[in-house]
Write a structure and sequence with these properties.
Structural class: alpha/beta
Number of helices: 11
Shape: globular
Number of domains: 2
Mean pLDDT: 93
Helix content: 25-40%
Number of strands: 16
Low-confidence stretches: none
Distance between the termini: 16 Å
Strand content: 25-35%
């Protein structure tokens, strides 16, 4: 490895089985006056990492590329026009899309933030994407109000657990759904008021339980990173005036909604793209980032890290993610 290369988990060709994703050297991006070179300490694993190795994600990096959408580390070198950071600063980064599961990375200053002191490197690497999505979804787009009922699907994943924690912080009553009683126990200890196992006997059935828990009204806000059958059932247990937030489709099926449902039940279906929200409205985007960082700095928000893999076992970490064994977040440690 030289000053112009790094060592990490590299996807050399697209494949469905990670056979073309292995540890190796990779050329670093060029360094200019606005660049920051970071010695990476930790990177988080996300489902889009898997999709990128298959060519199934909207972001399709040029091959070969190192995996990892977000990470944390220590500033090693700064460009002559960098003003907000200095060498030795502990930082976090996200929004780049790839390259975090490696020894080092070169990024524009705009994509790098100081690490909140309350978060360790693993927590910092896992923070921004999940909590920015939760904030933009629940507060900006969902307009969640105190004492409303929030139903969070996929609640044992990193994005889901962030929504559970964010919902409780803003005064909602939180119902968390998932497919494992064992995982849901952890989610409840993380703040959920009620939990529902949606996966018994291979079926998705939670409408009656949600109605029972809400005096037959249904949930006011539904946070759905799952899609598929979970979305279909959600439109049957949403309250009048409710907001159904579309976060993603980890189930693999993109659902559709018969338009008579929102007409008759008076609910809204709202797409959530936290990064695009900030790009369309930079001032609010800056404010969103400042708010979640302040909440992290004050100790009010922090991700649950269920497992850490050394860089040498990063591929095993992806398999762990693929098998959906995680609760919260999984990270890779560089040293």
């Amino acid at each position: 490895m030289t000053d112009h290369t790094t060592y990490g988990l590299v996807c050399s060709e697209l494949s469905d089985d990670l056979s073309k994703t292995n540890l190796g050297e990779l050329k670093l991006d060029s360094f200019d006056s606005n660049s920051v070179k970071i010695s990476i300490k930790a990177a988080s694993l996300n489902f889009p990492d898997l999709l990128m190795t298959q060519g199934k994600y909207q972001n399709r990096p040029e091959l070969p590329f190192a995996l990892g959408m977000e990470g944390s580390g220590i500033v090693e070198k700064i460009g002559s026009e960098v003003s907000s950071l200095k060498e030795g600063d502990e930082v976090m980064f996200g929004g780049w899309g790839h390259g975090a599961i490696a020894k080092s990375i070169i990024l524009p200053e705009s994509l790098v933030s100081l690490k909140p002191k309350k978060l360790n490197f693993s927590e910092a690497a896992s923070f921004k994407t999940a909590y920015l999505t939760a904030y933009v979804g629940l507060i900006r787009r969902g307009e969640l109000k105190k004492d409303e009922t929030l139903l969070v699907h996929g609640a044992s994943g990193g994005v889901g657990m962030a929504a559970v924690q964010m919902g409780k912080l803003y005064g909602a009553r939180v119902i968390a759904s998932g497919t494992s009683d064992e995982k849901l126990k952890i989610v409840k200890s993380w703040g959920a008021d009620e939990v529902i196992n949606t996966g018994f006997e291979g079926s998705v059935s939670f409408r009656e339980k949600v109605k029972e828990l809400t005096n037959n009204k249904g949930a006011d806000v539904i946070y759905d990173p799952v899609g598929g059958d979970v979305f279909d059932e959600s439109i049957r247990c949403i309250n009048w005036g409710g907001r159904l937030l579309i976060i993603g489709f980890t189930s693999g099926r993109i659902p559709t909604v018969p338009v008579n449902y929102p007409l008759i039940k008076g609910f809204s279906v709202i797409g959530v793209r936290a990064g695009e929200f900030g790009r369309k409205d930079p001032l609010k985007g800056k404010e969103n980032n400042e708010i979640i960082m302040e909440l992290a700095e004050s100790g009010k928000l922090s991700p649950h890290i269920c497992k850490e893999f050394p860089l040498e076992q990063a591929k095993e970490g992806l398999k762990y993610l693929k098998e959906r064994k995680l609760v919260g977040k999984v990270t890779v440690l560089m040293s």
